[in-house]
Amino acid sequence: MSGSSYRKLFDEWKTSFGDVEDEFNYDKSTFGVLTIPSLAIHSRNPQSLLVPGKPLLNRKGHSYAAKWLWNRLIAGPNYNISTIALSADTYYCPSIGCPYFRTVQNFKQCTIVTEEEWKKQNVAVIVNKKGKEARQEIIRSNLVGVILAILGLSSLSVM
To answer: Which GO terms describe its molecular function (predicted)?
Structure first.
């Protein structure tokens, strides 16, 4: 198959998937369709994402594909990985006011929150808490350290 016939076939494939998506997605619908005709995962070393000698994704390739799909579902059709390396990209978190996948129906009123932004918001909430609530939140966020401190102190007292 030549490059031009392959390109034509791919364009028809992409158009037909877009037609399916357009058929079911309209403003008043309570059902949404997301089509992904192809998944382009860009890497400096693309062979590291495949099973050696086969056109199948390995564990790392599946991890990248899952991250791309999750971020696409959360961010909506405007999610673009061309500006950042997928290995450096973070997982997007649904916002509190819009805790579901982006569809045509909810895309306009929903915002995207990155993991770092969510952590900053959580820190701001912890800072605003006072007394017992603040201590409980600090203990919850540092649970491993608290457990190790308790184990260390109890070992010390036994010795």
So the answer is: phospholipase activity
